[in-house]
Amino acid sequence: MEEQKQYRPNVAAVILSHEYPFSCKLFIALRRDIDDAWQFPQGGIDEGESPQEALFRELKEEIGTKKIEIIAEYPEWLSYEFPNKIAKKMYPYDGQIQKYFLVRLKKNAKIDLDTKHPEFIDHKFVDLQEVLNYIVYFKKPIYKKVLEYFIKEGYL
Prior knowledge:
- Helix content is 23%, strand content 33%.
- The protein is of the alpha+beta class.
- The protein has one domain: Nucleoside Triphosphate Pyrophosphohydrolase.
- Strands 1, 4, 5, 6 and 7 form a five-stranded mixed sheet that branches.
């Protein structure tokens, strides 16, 4: 009998610049621990924490601010499996199951990657049409699905 896969509950933020809706630039960050791996901020959901609570906490921990407003939420949980190299580090999890949020940075929000436990070494805002060109390969299918949904719903 095949062993049941374990997925880590997680939230992810598709962050729009404070100029949205006049400009549609998305925030991506370069991971410290994986070469050339750009991604959206994301992180685990602690026991007893709602996805929204985890979203605000993770953004503060990863990018130094929680000054955002939630615009929309992807209606389903999405999962992906870790590549072998990452799976060893994330044991006992085989992958993540994620709730995605579309958020806008508030005008006075300041990005600070020099957090208590830094995960990123760089960040930038890129055009919606370019974002998938940067994203690490194993996250692209999910990102594509999420972005297509937010486009279809008229948010992007």
